[in-house]
Amino acid sequence: MSEDNGLDADTLAERVRAGDLRLYELESHATDADAAATARRQIIGERTGTSLDAVSNYGVDAAVAENNIENMLGTVQIPLGVAGPLPVEGADGEREAYLPIATTEGALVASVNRGCAALRAGGGARARVTKTGMTRAPVFRVVGVAEAEATVEWVRDNVAALREAAESTTSHGELLNVTPYVVGDSVFLRFRYDTKDAMGMNMATIATGAACDVVEAETAAELVALSGNLCTDKKPAAINAVEGRGRSVTADAVLPTEVVEERLNTTATAMAEINRRKNFVGSAKAASLGFNAHAANVVAGVFLATGQDEAQVVGGANAITTVEPREEGLYVSASLASLEVGTVGGGTGLPTQGEALSLLGLRGGGDPPGSNADALAETIAAGVLAGELSLLAALSSRHLASAHASLGR
Fold first, then answer.
1. Catalytic residue list contains 243
2. Engineered SS bond to 319: which of 77, 130, 135, 295, CB 3.0-4.6 Å?
3. From CA 290, how far away is CA 280, in angstroms rounded?
4. Maximum Cα interatomic distance, the chain, rounded to a whole number of Å
5. Of 4, 14, 25, 105, which is the active-site residue?
6. pTM exceeding the 0.90 threshold for the entire prediction
7. Confidence of residue 397 (pLDDT cuts 50, 70, 90)
8. Digit-coded pLDDT (tens) for 132-183
9. Residue 152 and residue 389: Cα distance in Å, rounded?
């Protein structure tokens, strides 16, 4: 160990003030990750005239958090609520879930909880993952359309070789297919993977990099960027709404007439009209990719609680809510086209996020692999369904503003 290693927080701060160290270098010279974070708070607090006492109070092991953050200063705490129990019949059978929701939006948890109560009274929700596949789409340069055609034909004839290269980088991921797209002298290859219980973006990126080496070696195409935005990652995209990304999952339920009238204070006919005029006509007029009331609210809250990549809420909002009066009452569904979730990797390894996954009984890898992430997707979809029911009912009965007012929000 050199004399620059094992420095305490005060000494680290002095070294920064003297210009000997930069803020991002502290961990490599500190006694531990907490000392580095403490020194960083001292320096940033001095430079900005800000008290950072609140962000310094955390129970996270800073050394563990190094996998999730750089230049750690502290933590931001978000209130965590719970909605439920939420009865869900998934592919693995029936379960009751208490849905963890981290949010600063007053009335959200109460609204979802109301939807959960309606679903319980109506016999619960059903949910199924209908498609799985994390995507990465590199873009290649070719001379022109003839070379593009040759590249595409080679790819279609040699998926096995690409699969071998891609899967050599991971013990879990499986390459499902490769879809080519040509735009002038650009060739995009949309790789789709089964990443099991991991959300899998990093897995897909590394695997695709290995496959791209094969494409460059065997064709005239030259790689321009490992991500060509046709994936599409963390941006609104019609391709994800149509083709799916991560997990495509649908939850539905049939609520008896008395539940709709007594629990939701409305009627099936009124709910259907609200959904048609708001979620369909209004969304179409706005050219929205999401035809729902507030799916992102539930997706974001559960993502923050369970350590998902919060930027993937963009894909989680690719949801369509349907409402239909039936003879027995009300049919309602929520279909999420691109829900990107995992129960291993990323933020799921942090202690509070791990506890939230444990609360759902879905922490870590599933047996068989992928089953825990599937169940998480099903549970989130059922939670979205509960949220949609509650908000549409509040709008239908004109209670939305009064509900927020009564809760002081």
1. no
2. 295
3. 9
4. 79
5. 105
6. yes
7. confident
8. 999 999 999 999 999 999 999 999 999 999 999 999 999 989 999 999 999 9
9. 46
Alpha carbon distances (Å) from 299 to 138, 143, 170, 295, 363: 28, 43, 28, 6, 18
Please provide the average confidence, as pLDDT, over all residues in the chain. 95
Q: Give me the count of residues in the chain.
A: 409
Backbone φ and ψ for 9, nearest 5 degrees, come out as: -65, -45
Check 4, 174, 252, 404 and give the catalytic one. 404
Average pLDDT over residues 269-278: 96
Helix axes of 9-17 and 33-48: crossing angle, nearest 10 degrees: 50
User: Of residues 34, 243, 309, 340, which has the active-site annotation?
Assistant: 309
> Is the Cβ–Cβ distance between 99 and 111 less than 8 Å?
no
CA torsion 396-398-400-402 (nearest 10°) is -160
Q: Please, what are the domains in the chain?
A: 9-65 (no CATH), 80-132+246-406 (3.90.770.10), 138-225 (3.30.70.420)
Closest CA to 275 of 253, 249, 293, 289: 293
Q: Tokens 């879990």 appear where?
A: 172
Whether 294 sits among the annotated catalytic residues: the reply is no
Rounded CA separation 406/409 (Å):
8
How would DSSP label each residue in 135-171? EE--EEE-SSHHHHHHHHHHHHH-HHHHHHHHHTT-S
Angle 303-305-306 from CA coordinates, rounded to 5°: 70
CA dihedral 29, 35, 37, 39 (to 10 degrees): -80
Q: Active site includes 105?
A: yes
For the cut 70, the answer to whether the pLDDT of residue 60 exceeds it is: yes
For residue 363, give both structure tokens: 């922490």
Backbone angles phi, psi at 317, to 5 degrees: -80, -5
